[in-house]
Structures are given as C-alpha cells and as structure tokens.
Queue: 3 jobs
Job 1
Amino acid sequence: MSETKKQKKSFFSKLHDKYRLVLMNDDTFEEKISFRLTRFNVFIFFGTLVIFLVVATSYLIAFTPLKEYIPGYADFNTRKVLRELNQKADSLHAELRRKDLYIVNIRNIIEGKDLVDEMPELQSSQEFTEISELSRSREDSILRAQIENQITYSDWSPEEMDIVETRGVSQFFFFPPLQGILTNHFNPATRHYGIDIVADKGSPIKATLDGTVIFSTWTLTTGYTIGVQHANNLISVYKHNDVLLKEEGSYVKAGEVIGIIGDSGTLSTGTHLHFELWFNGNPINPADYIVF
C-alpha cells in the first residue's frame, strides 16, 4: 500500500516539476529565447487550445455560410424559397384547373351536355384511342396553299371593325362565315342551337369576327369543329368542316379563312356548315345579326 501511495505522490509531484525550454543559435550556441514550463502548465495550454478550436469550429458551422459546404446542411433561405415556390405551384395548378373547367364547359355547351362545377379527375385506367393522321395528297396541299394565301376582304372599314365597349350583340359588325342557302334554322326547342348553311363543296369558311381560336378538334358527332373566342364573351362555333386551317391559340381576323366546308361527323346529313353564336353562355340566332 505504501509503495502505491509513493507512486501516486510521485506522479502528481512530477506535474509541478519545472522544466526549461531554450531556443539557441545552432552556430554560436547563443541563447535566444527560453521558457520555464511544468507538465501541468503544458496540459492546461493544450487543453485550452483544443477547447477553443472545438468552440470556434462549432460557431463557424452553426452561424456562418460555411455550413453550406458541409453535406447535410442547406442554405439559410432554402425553406423560404421552397415555401414561395410551393405557393406559386399551388396558384398555377388552381389557375390551370380553372381554365380547363372553362374549356370543358364550352365543349359541353357545344355538344349539348350539362355544365360541370368541378373538373373531373382523370382515371389512371382510362384508355384513349389514338387516331392516326391521314396522309395528305398533292391536290390537298395545293388547295391548302391557295386558301391560306387567299386575300381576305371586308365590307367594313377597320374603324367599324374595332369593337369597343358594347351594350349588346347588335353593336357587333359580323362577317358572314359562308355565303349559301339556309336549310335549317335556329330552334332551341329541338336543341338545334345554330343554323345550317349549304354551299358548294370546297367553299372556304371564314371567321365572323376578330378573335382567338379556343379549340380546333375532331369529335365523333360534329366532325372537324373549330371555335373562336371574340370580345365581350362572344363565341362563334363552326362544325362539320372537311379541313381545319387554324390551331388552338391562333389569332384570326374577321373574314380570315379558318376551314373548308365539309360533311364530317355522324350528325351531318350532307355538305354544309353548322354555325353557332354564343353570347354570355347563351345561344343566339345568327340569322338575326348576319345576312347570309
């Protein structure tokens, strides 16, 4: 027991033993700098140095941008940026659904279906039938070029065609979409919301007013159909075409050719144009405002 106590005492006593650290010139052996040290002082110095380095490193990682370079840490503004992007994405999604609902209701009006308040969810198991594109003949390409290059004309001046704040449909100056014979008149009681105009095969169909094409598609019942959105919630629809010359999003002027008369669709009974006008979501009789 006495030997172990002596060893312990000698160990602690050695911590306070004094040593001298001398820096000398190697050539002249002249003493330059000297330090008096003990083991205890050396332990205290290096221990304090280690603690300082740990604290300084932790501070740099926690409170400076240096932490961005360490895997697992993100930028200070990452959460804020992600939150703003998430809000913008939600707003864009809501706006797209609102516009899709608007287009769906327009198509439902044209096809005689009921309006919907919400967009239907797409079913993952829903199957779509692909329609292969018909090949163009040389004659068809020549006809397209002739129709698209045709000079449009108007019976009214540009000042008259510029529609400003109007009070009703009577303030519009309509361009006849087709010159021909009316064979079937406007009759909402029989769900016939337009008029049928018969003309020669290959006759061009023209836009009745300036506007933007909101749909240019093909359906089983109405065939090749095109719709144009005009000013003041006015929409014109042209059905049973043989060829459509404008795509969705195209801007057209009054009298500009947008299609060729045809006999497409199961509801068609011959070569003719089924023409509709919709004002504020309600069908109106085109014959009341246009001379065919």
Job 2
Amino acid sequence: MHFYRDTKIGVLGGGQLGRMLIQAAVDYNLHIGVMDPNPEAPCRWLAHDFVVGSLTDYDAVMAFGKDKDVLTIEIENVNADALAALQAEGKRVYPDPATIKMIQDKRSQKQFFESYKIPTAPFVLVESKADVYRHMGRLPMVQKLAKAGYDGRGVQVLRDAEQVEEAFDAPGLLEEFVPFEKEIAVIVARNLSGEVATFPVVEMVFHPVHNLVEYLFAPANISPVLATEADHIARQIVDDLKFVGLLAIEMFVTPDGKILVNEMAPRPHNSGHHTIRANATSQYEQHLRAILDLPLGATYGLSPAAMVNLLGEAGHTGPAIYEGIEQLLATPGVYPHIYGKAETKPHRKMGHVTILDADVNRLEHTVQQVKELVKVVSG
C-alpha cells in the first residue's frame, strides 16, 4: 500500500472518537473525510473534508460515501441501509453494514450471543410497558431499550413493582439482574485477512448515577485464568461475525468467577482511550490497520495505566473551562486529552486523562487526585 492521500477514508461521526482517529491517521498520511450533524463537531477543524449532515439520513450518507474508497463509523447510530448500498456499489465498508445493523438493536445483539453460545445474562424480549408487567415474577430486572441507548441512556434497573411503573414503553428487552464483582472490557481487532489481535483486559468503574465509565484500570485486576477466558470470548465473537475493524466488548465478572458478555460496540471505545499513551499500538491506529487490511500492531501495555473521563460538572452549560489543568500538568505520568467540544453540559464527556505508573497503589491514588482536581465548568 502506498501511504499517500490516494485512499479516501470516510468516517460517519465527528465526535471525540473520530478526532482521535484522525490524529492516528496523520502518521499514515491518510485522507480522512467526516460527516456529522453538528457543524462545530470536534472533527470539524482536523478532517481533510467535513460535511454537515444527518448520519441516519439515507440520501445524506449515500452522497457522503460517493467519493470515498473506505467507509467506517465512530458511532453506531448511522443509516446501515445506505452503507449496504454503498458496499453493493463497490465501496469498502467496515464494519460490515449487516453487523452494524445487528449491533444497533440490543435485542438482536442478545440473540446473536444466544445463537453462538456466548455467555450472557438470561433475557426476554418485550414490546411495551404492558409486556414488562407480564414478567413481574422476574424482578429484579434490567430493562434496555432496543435502540437509541447510549452512555447509559435507555437502560434502567427495575427492582420492585414501584419502579416497574417507570418502565420504558417501547420495544426492548428484560435481562436478569446480574450481581457482579467487576465490569471489564476487551477491545479486539480483526483485519480482512483474518488476523486477530486483542488488547489486555481493562477494569471499568462506572458513575453510580449516570451509568457511564468514570475511570478504568489497565490491566484489570483479575486472575490470569479469567483474563484468558475474556480474551477467548472476544476472539470467538469477531471470528463468528467475520468482523473487520475494532470491536469493544463489555463483560461482567460474577461472584462465582464466571464471565458474562454485556454489550458490544463496533468501533473505537471509551474503554480504550488509554491505549494512546499506554500501549504499543493505540486502538485508533489499530482500527485503521484493520480496515485497510494492514498487519495489526502489537497491543501489549507499556505500563500499568488508568484513564479518568473528564465529565461536565452538574449545573454547568455553556462555553467550556477546564479548571486544574495547569496543576495536573505538573504531575509526572499524567496526560490530559481535551476533546475540543466548545460547550460543556452536565456529565458530557469533555476529555480524558491517562495516568501511567508502575506502582498500582499510587495509580489508584492519582485517579482520585485527578477526579478532585480537574473540573469542567462553564464560563
């Protein structure tokens, strides 16, 4: 392959994931075009060409893809039918549009796990709130909307009859509530030639209210046996799907030492941001290697690491101000990554901080320092 700008890559989605993908693409001298509905999206000033358009509009996606050689995504909420049509016209589309469509619906995701004997929590499909009432005997349950859930939205725990009154009245699923000890994730890449590479398992800590990752540790503090099992499951999934690209797989570790797959995302993921600093190859470079059918990069960790999400402070909406960054930069082994979003909102992902430290205890202490020190507020 010639590393010139003669291969045009189109990315659907112009958020922080796309921005970090472009940053990795610079080293390969790749031409990146981006489409996003927000004219001020983080990719706006970094992409070689930037188009404002709806990612779910068939005609807009078709028009965007016409002059691209390879198309990929940084968010699942895209028009998969348009991508399939572009694929039929000879465009290379990764991940495969059929896989994107399956993952877009949490019900079909769960049915995929069930069909391929991937360990996951027992579930039933529901069409409405009335359906939820028919399964009261299963309480406590986790209700998930079939579509449009993101960063914790569209997911709720129903513990008793009173909470069932607040159930979503829309198609989705009810999942058996899993008491778990840890939430872990594996990011796995597969290229068109069938080469597979996994990143070391990470351990995620979720925000207690907003159900999104607050911080994580890499590698996860789990036994080698569990780490090997998680790795095996990730490899099985990408092989079963004949997946091309990068797939993030979130899992639970139960008190009796079992692993259950929760959900997956067919793109770079919040659980892999630390790889930019902490691994031999970042998840973003790996995604590019995979969709261009290049040899996959080494994934080993260079150091124990942590990643802290920088979330907009409650009660603050407006131009973003990052308090504490100067003090943070004086701390060795701490690396902020700002996403370029002009406006902060409560609990919006505005950046992340990667921490590298061979001393795991000190790593945990620094995570708490970062959480207390850096605040994203409005001006």
Job 3
Amino acid sequence: MKEHGANFSFDHQKIGILGGGQLGRMLIQQGIDWNLSFFVLDPDADAPCRSLANFTQGKLTDFDTVMNFGMPLDIITIEIENVNTEALKELERRGKQVFPQPDIIELIQDKRKQKKFYQDHGIPTADFLLTENRDDVGKHQDFLPAVHKLGREGYDGRGVQLLRKAEDLSKAFDAPGVLEKLIDFEKEISIIVSRNKRGEIVSYPAVEMVFHPKANLVEYLFAPAQVNETVARQADLIARDVIQKLGMIGLLAVEMFVTRAGVVIVNEIAPRPHNSGHHTIEGNVTSQYEQHLRAILNIVPGTTTASGPAAMVNLLGEEGFTGPARYEGIGEVLAMSGVYVHLYGKKMTKPFRKMGHVTIVDPDIESLKKKANFVKHTLKVIA
C-alpha cells in the first residue's frame, strides 16, 4: 500500500471507535469524505454516533464486549478514556492496530500514574502528593491550598475538590487520589498535538480556555491564546515533548497553566480529539478530527495553520431544564456572519450537559469577542 501515492485508498479500512459521543460523531463526519467505514461501540442506545456508523450497543469496560467488537476491525481508536485496556492489549496481540496504544490509555486513566510520568520524565507540572484516602489527605494540612483529584474516573470537573484551608479537608475524596499544590495561574491554555507511526509531529497554536464558574467545564475559548511569544513557544515545546516521551500515535490535548511569572506547566492530558480543538473545523486549515485520522492511518500530517482568530462557545444545557432539547435563539445566531453551529444530536438535555458548540471566526479580535458574547447570551438549550 502506497502511503503517499495517488493510488492510496482508504476504502478497505474498517475503523472502530470506542465511544459514540460528540467527539466520535465529528470524527465520523470528517472520515465520511474519505470513504472510511466506521464502527461504533457505546452503552447508550441513542448515542450521537448511532445514525452515522455501524452501531453496537455495549459496555466499553467489559472485556468480552470490546473483544467481540474489535475482532472484525482493522484499526480501533477511542473518544473516551474509560475503556477496557486489557481487551485492547489482547486485540493488539491479535494483530489489530490500536491508537492511542492501550498502555498509554491505561496511564492516562489514572491521574496518579499521569503525574508520576510527568515527574519521572522532567515534564513541568504542579507539586503533588499521592494520597490513599481522606485520612491521608488530612495529614497534609501544611500543603494547602491544594486541589484534590480522584485518581480514576474523574472527568469534566467531576472528581475535583478545592481545599483552601483546614476546614475543607473533610471534602477530600475517601479514595486514592492526587493532592496538587494550588497554582496561582494567569491563564489556562491548551495545545493539540499529533504524532503518526513515522514519528512526525505537528501542533496547533495554543488556545485560551475560560471555564464555567459552577460546572468546571470549558464555557468558551479563544484562538490563538493571548500570550507572548516566549510563553507560546514554551507551551508548544512542552506539548511536543509530552507526545514524544509517551511515544503516542494519535491526537493529544495538553492542558496547561500559565503562571503569573510566565511559566508554563502541564495540568492534564487527553489522548483523543478534545473540546479545546473543536474550533479547528472552521478555524484551521486541518481540523483536529482530520489530523487524528491522518495520524492513525499513518498519513503525512495536515497543515495546522490558523485561518485567523477564532472563538468557540460550548452549548451547555441550561440550569432548571431537563427533558427533550429545544434550542432557543438559534435563528438569531445563524443570521450572523462567520458563525457556525454544531449540534451533537442529543435528544435530551439536562443542566450543564454538552449539547453542541458554536465556532466564530472574525479577523477583528474585538468583533470576535462581541460575537462570542452574543452567542453565549442568546443561544440557550432548554426543554
């Protein structure tokens, strides 16, 4: 098979995705243009990917379910980390290609292992202590203020507790976790980086993330991040260093803090397309979804150049509404130029559920911010 030649064909490749949410949906939407065949496993019978691919309902953490799903396929990838890695290792032994590699997924599933990896490989990160239970956390009052994170199964703001003073120690998790020194940061940024089997690495310009004050989810982001050239270069080198030291194949999101002293440190990583890269569909020459496909198919990386300033607003279910989703204000938003609405096909809304996102592109930064603010206050997901 010619990897760079004009006769290279994707048609015979059967690609499996563990997880049928919005990330898988957007990956499939990209791959349809290349005649790729997708197969999806998800426990939700109404998962967003259901109508776009060969769909199997099943548990992602069950060994036999993942094995049976993966055996007829050529390549298996993920859109969520909570999957059975033992099954993925066995599929790899049987000749299936699994990207990202199962041992990397396993490492990232556990924040304790993740932090140790940074420490052992000279990757800058916050000072931390590994804790076994709530009583263990209580012994480290002198380490406060700190953030306590569950070692496993925390995501989208779940499994994170801020401990500022001794009275907060009772809120610590009574399970294995990580106690991280609270960082006095100026900005939270993210860089999407990819690597293929030939070791070719490309990265996207850093984006700046703004989090929802209650849900601890990204509410909106701006690209490129408003940081100086030194910080941007430092962040880019760190992101490339992380994926290189992991030896990972696929797409990696590296979330980082920029301290008030202008130092960049890694917060967390995600081995898949990521919320902080949604804007690349319209905002960059190559979207993060195409880039992920290029990496796992071992194709030359796509150009990551931004077409101009961009913003992304997450559409979260409004507080006080649970039920069949309705999109209030969508007409007003669609009437604006440079505004692109992406809905995720979720029938039911609930408070803070990710229901879609809106990308805004505008050459003028102030106009971009005004449009993002208008979208945020106009387009509401209600029931």
